[in-house]
Write a structure and sequence with these properties.
Blueprint: H1 8-12, H2 16-32, H3 38-45, H4 49-61, E1 65-67, H5 80-87, E2 95-97, E3 103-109, E4 113-119, E5 125-132, H6 139-155, E6 164-171, H7 195-203, E7 207-211, H8 212-223, E8 232-237, E9 241-247, E10 250-252, H9 282-286, H10 288-299, H11 308-313, H12 319-341, E11 345-349, H13 357-370, H14 373-377, E12 380-383, H15 390-400, H16 403-409, H17 412-418
Parallel strand pairs: 3-6, 6-7, 8-11, 11-12
Antiparallel strand pairs: 1-2, 3-4, 4-5, 8-9, 9-10
The structure holds zinc ion.
Zinc ion binds near residues 274, 276 and 283.
Length: about 425
Amino acid sequence: MCHPELPEECIVAAPPNLREEGRLRVLQVLLASSTTSRPELVRLTGLSRATVSVLVSDLIAAGLVVEENGASGAGGAGGSADAEIRSMGRPALPLALNRSVAYAIGADIGHAHVRVALCDVHGTPVWETSEAKEVDRAPHETLDLAADLVRRAMAENGVPRERVLGLGVGIAAPVDADGALSAEGIMPGWTGIRPGPELERRTGLATEMTNDANAGALAEHMYGAGRDVEDMVYIRLSAGIGAGVIAAGALQLGAGGLAGEIGHLPAVRDGLVCRCGNRGCLETIASPVAVARLLQDSWGEPVAPSDLPALLAAGTPGMARVVEDTGEAVGRALAALVTLLNPRLIVVGGDLAAIGEPLFEPLRRGIARSALPSAARQVAVVAGRLGSSAEVRGAAARVLARAAQTLAVMSGAEAAELLP
Ligand SMILES: [Zn+2]
């Protein structure tokens, strides 16, 4: 990574690896902010004005960085450095990374859908689509569909594969550090399938696998409701129930990628047999599928999980009670995490989050009733800000974490060749 003691004259002079080191520091700052300025780069990279000036000129010539004209001096909080540089006759023009210099594609493979987004270098989706799909018993069809949507993402946006840094995939099963699934009992048809290599073969893109709730946690932490919160839990209430834990700013995966599988905490004694093989797991009573099934049994007519928010809004008999029971059950399960981890924030995502306060209120009550009271008082429960895009954005963010390194080693010629 960075070498703060690096002699700057070496960066300005020829040796390419040292120049790369300087480019890396400049690119890291540019990736972390939408705009900056040369004085701000001097302050944040610890490099000299001369070095920053040369590196920025190179990056502009290569098309990686753009100088935003007509807003002189507005680009940063450079203060005296701004004034100093203006006195040299060089205005502190705002600088930004060329957003289309590189992309990452995020995919979310749930139990009942495949969603794909093309994200720019800052992680903002520029194109996104989702298709319903019964995923659990059809791994190869699902992977074909995902690859097809990835190809569409590039084709419909005129983005060549060479400008895509990689494919990040969030999937509704635990994923270990090597990208292998623990699909047994979670996604029954996927045992023994390695989606990463399968998707690499189908798309030609380097593929990084992660669990979907972990991807959602990362996205809400980086771009959504959990920005600037170092200790948070993201819970996804969808066809499956999963959680992602951020502790001291880092995603917690556990030894085998199983951390956060809150849907399989016991919620009722002698309840239904869960797909994991245990009985009475939270998922058997609080997933949208379980809630819809409960109503279906009572009404004797089909209820789709996606109908639930509208049924509640319409005041359908039984709905308020079901939502209340669900919220309390989820709250009791979350209480265990609140007591163990002492998070500042719980972000609720997934299909059921659309219900909002009628669900959150009993959920908070469940936490208050079962968690250590002081830990319960310190945690806030809010809805996710990214909606159903959280998982694709987090999956793409895993790929974009390597963006500065990749861009720093591209020679000027390579970059110029790649860019329109
Ligand atoms: Zn279970």
